[in-house]
Amino acid sequence: MRIGRIGPLIRLAGCLAGALSLLGAAPARADLVIGVAVPRSGAYVAVGEQVLRGVEAAARDINGRGGINGQTVVLDVQDDACDSNKAVAVANHYANSNVQLVVGHVCSNASLAASEIYAANGTVMITAASVAAKLTDRGFPNVFRVCGRDDDQAKLSATILAERFRDRKIAILNDLSPASRNLAAATKENLNRIGTNEALSVAFAASDADDAALADRLKEAGIQVAYYGGDAKEMGRLVRISAERGFRPQWFGTSAIATQEFATIAGPASNGVLMTFYLDPRRKPEAAAVVQAFKAEGVEPEGSTIYGYAALQALAEAGNFARSTDSRRIAETLHAERFALVLGPVGFDAKGDVTAQGYVLYVWKDGAFTYAN
Where is each Leucine-binding protein domain found (predicted)? Predict the structure, then answer.
């Protein structure tokens, strides 16, 4: 019934537009500015570049198909450095600029801080990489993510540790950063609940000297499996320094090392390192054309690249379905409908979490990661 009422209006609008075009006065639509908040400085630059690369590719494809509700997408890219205070400043910039749709942020602490501003202003925020459960558990109707949740990642990590390494000495490490600390705590809690206890739990400050001291401490304690939720740069350095000091445990990382930077820094010691990460969308048939386009440009769409593409794609699909760029209408549509994205056919639940498959286990080999058995 609703479509029936709208249909005549659309036909009338089309007739008017055609008449104006014949008169040489076709109506122009303003550009649609969409914010993109990613770290372009700091420890997580590599992940930020992945997300931005995906968003930029999606914007080109969306504009090539007519934009969102007929409006051309223009990106306002801001650097939050994965810092909570800078993220708030970026969110306020978007609010003051009347930007109502944002792809971002990358780090969970930045997303948590900025989302308060977006919630107050009715801005739709969709992240390609922030995994903190709290982000969507608060129930903001305008906050979404196309990636997984850290509590799901921690459950999988704990299950793998318990099933594969129950009889080995396990260490759980964190470098005091919010993401690393939260993942370590959640993994430990799930592991202990299963009935397996770690031999050592260590918080340390990330630096060359501390990495060497930590490697020696773990070696002396007879640690055989080391779980660590650090970023690609820090874990790569720790794995390399440990190997140089004759300590080669089974390393187990998280989605934070799903970038070539990890293997480059760790070198040959990266071989055999396990990692939990989202389902690799590059293997999805729905992403084949996008992946091929990236590779034709000499770019491997690793890590969060396709998730960045999916985040903007979801906004576009919702906007075109609703025939609106209004943030409230787009949020309602994201919650209510399913969309054909590069991740496959997905929707978003009441919290804003994507309904796509969650985390799986990978192993690094020869500078790349692939599914583990």
Answer: 34-367
Global pTM value? 0.81
Q: What pLDDT digit, counting tens, does each position of 308-363 carry?
A: 999 999 999 999 999 999 999 999 999 999 999 999 999 999 999 999 878 899 99
> Which residues on adjacent β-strands are paired with residue 143?
125
31-147+284-357 matches 151-272 in fold = yes
Count CA within 13 A, CB hemisphere, residue 368: 6
Strand order in the sheet with 143-145: 73-79, 32-38, 101-104, 124-127, 143-145
User: Where does 31-147+284-357 sit in CATH, by number?
Assistant: 3.40.50.2300
Domain ranges for the chain: 31-147+284-357, 151-272
State how far the Cα of 356 lies from the Cα of 353, in Å rounded to an integer. 9
